[in-house]
Amino acid sequence: MPRSVLALVSTLLEGLVEGSDFTAAAVVLAESAGVHPHVLARAGRLTGEGWRTLLLERRPDLLRVPLRPRGESEEAAVLVAHRLDGAGWREEDRRLLKAFALAIDHLLDVQSADFGWQELAASRRLLRVTEEELAQLILNLHDGPVQKLFAAMNHLSILQDIVDEAGPEDAQVPLQRCTGLLEAALSEIRVFLTAFHSPNFAERDILELLRSLVLQQEQLTGLRVHYQTAESLPPAPVSIKIALYRILQEALANVWRHAGVDECFVHVWAHQDWIYLEVWDHGKGFAPPPLTGPQATEASQHIGLRGMRERVHLVGGELRVESAPNMGTKIHVRVPTYE
Question: If you count DSSP H runs as helices and E runs as strands, how many of each does the chain have, helices first?
Fold first, then answer.
């Protein structure tokens, strides 16, 4: 429901901009407006980054009206309008913005009794929180089991040197096997840590992140990835970067595990306010389960597809899977360039 409601809110914002001399209009989470602006819906000529800059600067060319759906006493979100000469806002501008704020409040009351701006923003922030928790988990794993395994290998090596000098010979084969098992375990843990490594999403751009992921998967699995991208992509918030990175990671892993081929194809590009990702192979294929609607899968065997679906939905994007037995698989992803 939140996605459909946001689409209606965006339509209202477009009507507000088209029917006035406003440059742009947006809905912003109230508690974030002066600290780390979280733009939930927007229309007009300002980009998401442009909105965040103006809100942080508290510019006089912004006009704000609080949103209070379902009779809430405190504002949950703010409707904000921008005009280049906004320092001289007229009373009719204020009345117009208040009328649209009331329309949005009423829309939320009628369309979705369980809709909340806070819940929507929290669900998007969950992506970043999850990555931070994963990074801590990896750090703990590295500082614990990995170090213990490394120490055990050193002790076995010392023991093997002693046996080499003093015997008995019968201990050589078991010790060699034990050392080999420990080396294999350590190697597997390193592969695990690499596969779940959380890169610096905040400082790296999307193309760099995805390119490094492709190279990593090729080295780990031997899969050949034909990677095609635009020369550049528009800046995007951390939540969008995380979603694209994890979706591509899962898609490449699925090719390696299930497709029965040694190559696949990846294409990334942008159009208007959207970033597109396609991943496909010419492998075994399968019958995709429904991912939306009342019959949408929640089965454990589809956990990879479910994860991709949820990550796409959390950032307001779209996912489509095309496949059939012996016909290969193609995954289509579209995510916005703004939160």
Answer: 9, 9
